[in-house]
């Protein structure tokens, strides 16, 4: 029986076991109709697994689910959709060569006769898009649009299916602060219309801002459910991690040395051959963190891909320690002691079917002691992996388990472990803490600052303004492919950056680079 | 003299259509299968078995149309095996399909012996009547193939089934989260490819000829795959490629070049496919999930 009448959803004693991992261990979650419920917990705590069970994607090994008072048996997502449950997945579920509209209507397509009714489909998409302020280009192909827009497509997908209970798995991880505000406005209006929202996040600020109640998972168990107004951020962090966590970055004044990396008049095109990076010049010194602030899709991705040798440039020049590395390929750049945490961890950071020990030496696999005379030294690799897994606290299966079976945050930690372990002198970090839990954010931030203090130059790109602000020593603001300003982090704030990022102060100028 | 060349070239073009017919049909089948995520290199075997079944149907009933029906059932039955083993039980698609090809060649020879008591070539059977439209005389399967090209395009790109087929071939997990039954769609798509390949076989045995000859598919299933790739997994593209290959075959058969061995001309389809795959005519990307079985509950 459901425990209370006003629960729209009551999950009781849910257990889900993967080979070697008890992802959910007698978890209880009850959701009141019309509330915004935050589901929090460390990386690998079992949040995504629990939601996949609710969405019918995983069959639980034990437990019961009551929806609107009735016990339900979810054999697949179609059952969940029928009940009015919608889900925005942590890793996008979009078909790349299809258009935005096609992705949205897929599975419940409007028809006229035998034909798929493109007109109605586009009209419907446009309607939802306008109603909730979720701007998308209905005819663009997914492969050509930004991560931010892909996210909006995912949200429209659930709304299109008229979901009553919406599950959002880390929806804000890929959004800009402004977009997050917009999303929360959507949350609020959905709530006003009587819809119920479960959302997963690692950002406690968001939990405090938007949720009514919070359920905390730790190591597969449900620890507690609390009213948001009764707790502080620190309380929640402690419930999650089981210890006190520093939520603020603590760092000393930078001590910049000579220039380590320089970009001169860089021009780069995007996938559609349109200019994405326009005549950018920047320089990073040893022992400093240069942050790049900007709304997603303003050329950051292309800039980083160009620097790391993953994208052809149109014109311009890179110098590392005074050496011209403009036409170096990704591997040659790596050999120059450049480390790179890529923005898209699944596409660029890991080989999902490889196991942890193979992933952790990727790019260094041909070097001693991992390889000797062309033969892999698996004993050394195993030892190395074990050390790093422990040091970086990568949880979920041992070194033999495949990367795809790690939770999102642990995948991120795996990449960080690999990239930080070869004494980088120049570190490029793109969204380094995306999807990472509070405890691990603390850890990764400290690692980045340690590298800086060791004398490495750091180029940081983050959609998280607070992250850019608290980590960087200098901040370059990018807007429509141009650097509109370079500021000292200590002399600016979110408001000023926010304005620059949206171009509303583009001409105002300020202290410029050099 | 002038008219002579003209007639000669018109007949060459008509021959191209005839040679292209099985390629068009099998390529369309391949498109359905691969668009849904199943590599089907068993088209060859399905075509061969279809060719045999068509002759058997025509011989035992005297009605070539029953032969056509049999050919489709034959292709369907092989496709059902491929789908069951590869889609439902997730075995390796290439290995199973190769097995089907070998089996097809063996079973047709065996059945020739058992049912007709002959070794290489079946007795003559009633063939499909040719239809005349203006100056053009084709057997009905050629017309069917030509009609099926836009039909396939319509299904794949204008209907919701097509959208779903393409989505399960690209990102099955995404389709799954929207309540689309990935394996069912793949199963059906493979069955469609079997029917089309079987029909292609009927063209060979009772459309273009009136008997079954052992190994009569002679690699056309593979050339059809080449046409599919050359045509970028698109019905019109594949049609164009099949016509080109059909033309090459017609030239090889009809025109006697003193210095070029006809085997070299028969190799044209493969050479062209290599050129395409190498990217000389723009990118030709197969469906992303093609060849990979889909396991529920994987990220
Ligand atoms: N398909 C799978 N096969 C094997 N193990 C899995 C699978 N999916 C998840 N796991 C394991 O189950 C545990 C819980 O994973 P889950 O993805 O639910 O965590 P999470 O709370 O969502 O974490 P994150 O915040 O990092 O996204 C992890 O240890 C993970 O490695
Ligand atoms: Mg998760």
UniProtKB/TrEMBL annotation, chain A:
It is found in: Cell membrane. It holds the Pfam family ABC_tran. It is a peripheral membrane protein. GO terms for cellular component: plasma membrane. CDD domains: ABC_Carb_Monos_I, ABC_Carb_Monos_II. Keywords: ATP-binding, Cell membrane, Membrane, Nucleotide-binding, Repeat, Translocase, Transport. The keyword Membrane applies. SMART domains: AAA. InterPro entries: AAA+_ATPase, ABC_carbohydrate_import_ATPase, ABC_transporter-like_ATP-bd, ABC_transporter-like_CS, P-loop_NTPase. Residues 9-244, 261-505 form the ABC transporter domain. Its main location: membrane. GO terms for molecular function: ATP binding; ATP hydrolysis activity. Belongs to the ABC transporter superfamily. This is Nucleoside ABC transporter ATP-binding protein.
Automatic annotation (TrEMBL), chain B:
Its main location: membrane. The chain crosses the membrane at residues 12-32, 39-59, 65-87, 94-118, 138-157, 187-206, 233-252, 264-282. Pfam families: BPD_transp_2. InterPro entries: ABC_transp_permease. GO terms for molecular function: transmembrane transporter activity. Keywords: Cell membrane, Membrane, Transmembrane, Transmembrane helix. It is found in: Cell membrane. GO terms for cellular component: plasma membrane. The keyword Calcium does not apply. The keyword Transmembrane applies. It is a multi-pass membrane protein. This is Nucleoside ABC transporter membrane protein.
């Amino acid at each position: 029986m459901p425990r209370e009448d006003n629960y729209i959803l009551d999950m009781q004693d849910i257990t889900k076991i993967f080979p070697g991992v008890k992802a959910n261990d007698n978890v209880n979650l009850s959701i009141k109709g019309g509330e915004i419920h935050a589901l929090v917990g460390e990386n690998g705590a079992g949040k995504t697994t629990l939601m996949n069970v609710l969405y019918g994607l995983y069959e639980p090994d034990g437990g019961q689910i009551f929806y609107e008072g009735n016990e339900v048996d979810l054999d697949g997502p179609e059952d969940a959709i029928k009940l009015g449950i919608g889900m925005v997945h942590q890793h996008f579920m979009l078909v790349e060569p299809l258009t935005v509209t096609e992705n949205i209507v897929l599975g419940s397509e409007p028809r006229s006769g035998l034909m798929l009714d493109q007109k109605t489909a586009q009209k419907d998409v446009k309607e939802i898009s306008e109603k909730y302020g979720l701007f998308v280009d209905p005819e663009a192909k997914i492969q050509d649009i930004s991560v931010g827009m892909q996210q909006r497509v995912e949200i429209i997908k659930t709304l299109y299916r008229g979901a009553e209970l919406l599950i959002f798995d880390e929806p804000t991880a890929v959004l800009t602060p402004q977009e997050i505000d917009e999303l929360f406005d959507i949350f609020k209006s959905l709530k006003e219309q009587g819809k119920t929202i479960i959302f997963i996040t690692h950002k406690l600020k968001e939990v405090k801002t938007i949720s009514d109640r919070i359920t905390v998972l730790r190591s597969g168990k449900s620890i507690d459910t609390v009213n948001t107004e009764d707790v502080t951020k620190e309380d929640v962090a402690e419930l999650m991690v089981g210890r006190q966590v520093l939520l603020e970055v603590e760092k000393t004044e930078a001590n910049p040395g000579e220039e380590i990396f320089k970009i001169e008049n860089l021009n780069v095109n995007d996938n559609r051959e349109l200019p994405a990076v326009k005549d950018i010049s920047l320089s990073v010194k040893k022992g400093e963190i240069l942050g790049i602030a900007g709304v997603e899709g303003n050329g950051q991705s292309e800039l980083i891909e160009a620097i790391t040798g993953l994208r052809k440039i149109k014109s311009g020049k890179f110098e590392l320690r005074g050496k011209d590395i403009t036409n170096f390929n990704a591997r040659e750049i790596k050999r120059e002691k450049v480390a790179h945490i890529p923005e898209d961890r699944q596409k660029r950071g890991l080989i999902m079917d490889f196991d942890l020990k193979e992933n952790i030496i990727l790019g260094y696999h041909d070097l001693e002691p991992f390889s000797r005379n062309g033969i892999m030294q698996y004993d050394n690799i195993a030892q190395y992996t074990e050390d790093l897994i422990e040091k970086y606290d990568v949880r979920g299966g041992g070194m033999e388990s495949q990367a795809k079976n790690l939770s999102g945050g642990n995948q991120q930690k795996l990449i960080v472990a690999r990239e930080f372990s070869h004494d980088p002198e120049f570190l490029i970090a793109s969204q380094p803490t995306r999807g990472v839990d509070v405890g691990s954010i603390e850890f990764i931030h400290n690692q980045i600052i340690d590298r800086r203090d060791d004398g490495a130059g750091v180029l940081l790109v983050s959609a998280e303004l607070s992250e850019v602000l608290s980590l960087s020593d200098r901040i370059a603001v990018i807007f429509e492919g141009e650097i509109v300003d370079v500021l000292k982090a200590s002399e600016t704030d979110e408001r000023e950056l926010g304005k620059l990022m949206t171009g509303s102060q583009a001409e105002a100028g300020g202290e410029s680079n050099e | 003299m002038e008219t002579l060349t003209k007639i000669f070239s018109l007949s060459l073009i008509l021959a191209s259509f005839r040679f292209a017919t099985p390629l068009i049909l099998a390529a369309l089948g391949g498109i359905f299968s691969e668009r849904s995520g199943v590599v089907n290199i068993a088209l060859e075997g399905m075509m061969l078995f279809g060719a045999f079944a068509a002759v058997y149907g025509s011989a035992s009933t005297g009605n070539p149309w029953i032969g056509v029906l049999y050919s489709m059932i034959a292709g369907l039955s092989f496709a059902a095996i491929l789908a069951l083993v590869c889609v439902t039980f997730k075995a390796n698609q290439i290995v199973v399909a190769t097995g089907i090809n070998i089996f097809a060649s063996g079973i047709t020879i065996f059945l020739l012996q058992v049912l007709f008591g002959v070794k290489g070539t079946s007795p003559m059977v009633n063939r499909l009547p040719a239809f005349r439209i203006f100056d053009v005389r084709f057997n009905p399967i050629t017309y069917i193939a030509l009609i099926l090209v836009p039909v396939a395009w319509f299904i794949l790109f204008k209907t919701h089934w097509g959208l779903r087929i393409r989505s399960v071939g690209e990102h099955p997990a995404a389709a799954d989260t929207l309540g689309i039954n990935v394996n069912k769609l793949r199963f059906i798509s493979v069955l469609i490819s079997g029917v089309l390949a079987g029909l292609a076989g009927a063209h060979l045995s009772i459309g273009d000829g009136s008997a079954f000859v052992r190994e009569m598919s002679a690699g056309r299933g593979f050339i059809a795959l080449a046409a599919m790739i050359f045509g970028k997994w698109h019905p019109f593209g594949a049609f164009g490629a099949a016509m080109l290959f059909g033309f090459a075959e017609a030239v090889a058969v009809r025109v006697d070049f003193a210095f070029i061995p006809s085997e070299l001309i028969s190799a044209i389809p493969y050479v062209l496919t290599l050129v395409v795959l190498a990217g000389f005519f723009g990118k030709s990307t197969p469906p992303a999930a093609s060849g990979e079985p889909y396991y529920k509950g994987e990220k």
